[in-house]
Each structure stands twice: as structure tokens, then as C-alpha cells.
Amino acid sequence: MQTSFSSEALADPAMRSSEQVIRKCVHCGFCTATCPTYVLLGDELDSPRGRIYMIKDMLENKRTPSPEVVKHVDRCLSCLSCMSTCPSGVNYMHLADHARAYIHDNYQRPLADRLLRRLLAFVLPHQGRFRWSLTMAALARPLQPLLRAIPAFRPMATMLDLAPVKAHRSKPVQPAAVPRAKGRVALLQGCVEPVLRPEFRAAAVRLLNRCGHDVVFAPGEGCCGALVHHMGQEQDALAAARRNVDAWAALIDDQGLDAIIVTASGCGTMIKDYGFLLRDDPAYAEKAAQVSALAMDVSEYLARIELPAARQRELTVAYHPACSLQHGQKVTEAPKRLLAQAGYTVRVPAEAHLCCGSAGTYNILQPEIAETLGQRKAGHIDRLEADVIATGNVGCATQIARFTGTPVVHTVELLDWATGGPRPKALDHLFSE
User: Fold this and answer.
1) What is the per-residue pLDDT across 228-249, written as a single tens digit (0 to 9) for each?
2) Is the pTM of this model over 0.85?
3) How many CB atoms neighbour CB 119 within 10 A?
4) Cα 410 from Cα 88, distance rounded (Å)
5) 3-class SS at 214?
6) What is the CATH number of the domain that holds 373?
7) CA 130/CA 196 separation, integer angstroms
8) C-alpha 256 chain-centroid distance
């Protein structure tokens, strides 16, 4: 695609990066076939190609974002399915993230939208605040029908849908000391996952310890920054990235790390991009690149090491590949192969490439589209008649569970169980007498 950015604009590294992304687009339209919003809405402006045209015009001419442009950019899930099908190597992720940051800096959103985004940014990246918010959600649940009936409050009703009826109060998992360890890995502590589904990280710790690997947590590490990054709050995202890079760099300098393991694939995609995000920061560029190189999804790492012998489990697993894992990180076969090697029968639903509608805060900010995608995804999964659904991202697990009665667990929970760990509590009903 031909561009005409001014030399002044190209002096900005973000503009220069976006210009290079736009120039790679050849208008082929392959991306439209795999874009969830285009598949649902049939509007060219809700396809990657259409958004690229709008973003190009906005950035190239330094326009104040119009409500129309903002609407269509906001509708993008950042599922990155378009990047899996693009024959030209267009890095739509970096372009969309820049567009969101530009909109955040140059567009005055309606008051209700601004307040909601500030609330999400204030609460979700912090475990303590998020846990407290779930307590408040339980008190507000009787108001849900009223909130759903008022369009401006629909996102609040969706937040109550997503909140568990009973919040987890489990003790923080403690890694075991491993004599003559085969490796040393840091495990991302995260923000939302430890509150909503602490059993995910607990299973990862048990399994990694059983495989003979020391697991450590980095003091000072916190939210990866993805939640605010995808809302365009770039400075907050960069601050989170720098904090985590410092935390992991200290562990690397101390005794070294074989990997930085992530159990939430949305976080993994973000951390693997730290090197790009901090490329122009002389104090962090090298350290960030090192951290990104060490970041691995838990299934990606487990596929590289020797797992304990598995006990046959007569269960059929519907594997849902999270977009951030299959499109963002290109980890596609490892989770399925690990599950099959552990003795499970693995099935993959139709339209596995399409997003479930979770996408970070998307199912709150765009509830109608998200619910349609969630129902569509659950319908395909239910047709598999599986005993359990496995996925690698807490957002997907929470979203899909809204629309199906089949239990949803993390892939690592099933691998932990098959190799000597406890049975996932979500499966208790399958084994009750």
C-alpha cells in the first residue's frame, strides 16, 4: 500500500513502524475470511483491510479520530487471526496497538466510556483490587436485570456475568524445593488469573516440579500490561513492562533462568513483545529483548522437556486454541500433542481459528459482539460431545464457561492430573458416585 507520511511524522518511531506495516499490505483481502467481526457483521470497515485504510488516513494526516473510526477500531478483538492468514507478513498487531494509543491521546470519549475504561484499568491489573471488586459484584448482582436494560450500563451487567458467584480464597501456591534440578524457570504471577482460577498456576507449579524443574516467582513482578495496552494506555503498559523486565532481569543476573513460563496466553503474547515495545529505550532495550526471548507458554515449555509417565484417562477433551496462543504466539500443535500423549482423546471444534469473544476487556467493552462470538464458539464445542474443554487462557475459560455446561479447565490441569497430580475440581461431577 502506498503511503505519504511526512518526514516530520516519520521521525516518530511509532509512526515509522506503522508506516512500514501499512506499506506491506497488498489489499488482497485474505484477512477478511478469518476476521471474526467481518464474518459476523459483513462490513469492510470491520475487517483488517478496512481498518488499515482508516488507520492509514488517520495517522498519515494526523487527523483527530472521528467517532466512526473509533467505533471500528474498538470493534477489533486483536485476535490476530488476520496475521495467520496474511501472505504479506503485515504486523497488524503493532499497527492496531499504535492506533489505539493514538486514539487514547487524541480523542475525547463519551463520559460513560471514559469512566468504564478508567475503572477497568484501576481494578483488573491489581490482584487485591480485583478480589475486592468480586466481593462488590456479589452485592450488586440483584441489580443485573436493571443494568442490562439500560444500554449505557450494559457493560456493567456483563461484568457481573463474568464474575464468579463465589470468589476463590485459596492459599498462594508454594513451589517445592527440587534436589538436583534439571532447570530453573520463573512463573508469571499475573493479575486476573490468580484470582479467578488459581488452580491453573497451582497445576503448573506441581507439574514443573514433578518434571524436576525449580519454579521461582520474581519479587516485584505484576500485571504484564496487556489489559491497559489494548485500551491504548501506552504509558501505563510501558511502565508495567519495565517493572517486569527489572524483576526478571534480577533473577537472570542472580542464578539464571531457562525460561519465563506463562499460563495465560494473552500475557505470553504481550511479554514476548516487550523487546519491540521497549526497543527505543536505551536503558531497557537489551534487557527487554532478553526477557522476550525467554518467555514461553507453559505448553511450549512442557513440549521441550521430559514429562513423567502418564496414567490413561478415559476422557474426551475439546481443545479450544486461544487466539493469543495460536495466532499471537504461533503455538498450535504442542497443547494437542501433549494431551494426546497423556492419554486423552482430543477433538478440535469447527472454526477453531475464530475468537471466542473474550479478548481481554473486549467482552466488557463490546458485550453484544462478544456474546454472539461466545455462543457461536460454545455451539461448535458442544457438538463435539466432549467430557471437558481445555484451553490455555483464563479469559477464554471464563468466556466459554458462560455459554456451555461442559467444564472448562486449563490444559496444564489435565497434564498435571495425568502425571500424578490431583483431579481438577471442575471434573468432580464426572466421578461422583
Assistant:
1) 999 999 999 999 999 999 999 9
2) yes
3) 15
4) 33
5) strand
6) 3.40.50
7) 9
8) 27
Cα–Cα distance between 373 and 363 in angstroms, integer? 10
Determine contact, residues 111/34, Cβ cutoff 8 Å: no
In a domain, 271, yes or no: no
Grid cell in block for residue 335: 497443547
Asked if 60 and 5 touch (Cβ cutoff 8 Å), the reply is yes
CA 132, 136, 137, 142: dihedral to nearest 10 degrees? 170
Task: Give the residues across from 214 on adjacent strands.
Answer: 184
Bridge partner residues of 389 (DSSP): 318, 408
What distance, in Å, lies between the first and last C-alpha atoms of the chain?
Answer: 63
Return d(Cα 29, Cα 50) in angstroms, integer. Answer: 9
pLDDT tens by residue, 152-168: 778 778 878 777 776 66
Q: Are 170 and 370 in contact (CB under 8 A)?
A: no
Query: What would the grid cell of residue 207 be?
Result: 507439574
Nine cell digits for residue 144: 443485573
Torsion of CA 186, 196, 324, 239, to 10 degrees: -60
Q: Which helix (H) or strand (E) holds 390?
A: strand 388-391
Please identify, among 65, 89, 106, the residue that sits at the C-terminal boundary of a domain: 106
Residue-wise DSSP of 318-360: EE---HIIIIIS---SHHHHHHHHTT-EEE--TTTTS--S-TT
Q: Grid coordinates standing for 11?
A: 521521525
CATH of the domain at 96: 1.10.1060.10
| Residue 238, in any domain of the structure | no
For helices 92-106 and 48-60, what crossing angle results, to 10°? 50
| Domain span at 332 | 316-430
CA-atom Rg of the chain in angstroms: 21
